[in-house]
Amino acid sequence: MKRSTCLLILSLLFSLSINAQRYEIGAFLGGNNIIGDIDNEYYNFPNNISAGMLFKWNVNERLALRSNLGLSFASASIDKSWIRYNNNEPGGIHSFYGDGYGVNNYFEKGIANVEVLAEWSLLDFVTFHKNVHSPYMTIGVGALAFQYSGKTAILDNGNKIPVNEIKDGDIINEYSDYNGIDYSITIPFGVGYKYLINYKWAAGVDLMFRYTFTDNLDDSGVKNVGNINSNDWFPTVGFTITYVFGRPPCYFCSAKD
Questions:
Q1: Which CATH architecture fits 20-148+179-255?
Q2: Mapping DSSP to helix (H, G, I), strand (E, B) and coil, where does residue 15 land?
Q3: Distance, CA of 92 to CA of 221 (rounded, Å)
Q4: Taking the domains of the chain in order of start, what are their residue ranges?
């Protein structure tokens, strides 16, 4: 039983290796924004820069396996957010849930992302022809590492507690800031359009949304403000350029034009 299973797996891998021998490696450059409680006025308006690298294995004319590695600079302001708070004012004006304690007016941070995705072309994308183009859809799994900042409340008895643990009756003398690194699993998905310029180069436009499993991407989770039951999103949009390499399947060699 084990031998037959191994033979089946090897035959599948051999079949894929025969039918898919074209790869792409390249770069992404574009913009990003955070969709959260402290964000920008428009949902998908890129106001900061994102850059990265990508690798594709073209399994066949429709399916590609893709990996992304990216770095982004992100920032947002409460003054430009659709949810606004009274800064450092307990019981101030705020939306949804939370107490509004110790909210910063502005934040900026670095975000790193890594992803593995399946990319499905709506038209045949034959990478050993030229002037080939197709829209595509993609979905996968990924992870984020990001900087965050929070505030600690210093009570009149000298104890320090996170602001999201403040209870009614606590007497707060002051706040202190702290910084750290946090992580989150993501579900990335998106759409795009790609064009094979010639046998060696391809270009594209890529729009990617990332649902995260954290409410701290905009620093609101550690400050207990906004909708504490809603996680943040991290979309990017930009351009890709890739170098295409590898030889086509042997039975297509005569079809190259």
A1: Beta Barrel (2.40)
A2: helix
A3: 17
A4: 20-148+179-255
What single-letter amino acid sits at 180? G
Task: Please give the sequence-ordered ranges of beta strands (E in DSSP) within 1-131, or none if there are none.
Answer: 22-32, 48-58, 63-77, 97-98, 106-121
Distance CA 157, CA 223 (A): 21
Phi (first) and psi of residue 207, to 5 degrees? -120, 120
Reported as a single tens digit per residue, the pLDDT across 60-108 is 889 999 999 999 998 877 665 555 544 444 443 333 334 444 455 567 8
Distance CA 81, CA 39 (A): 5
Q: Give the bridge partners for 139, in sequence order.
A: 118, 189
For 16, the enclosing helix (H) or strand (E) is: helix 2-19
Q: Which pLDDT tens digit goes with each residue over 34-63? A: 887 776 555 667 889 999 999 999 998 899
Tokens of 153: 């409340």
What one-letter code names the amino acid at 93?
I
Alpha-helical segments (H) within the chain: 2-19
The pTM is what? 0.76
Residue burial 195-229, b: 16+ Cβ < 10 Å; e: rest: ebeeeeebebebbbbbbbebbbbbbbbbbbbbeee
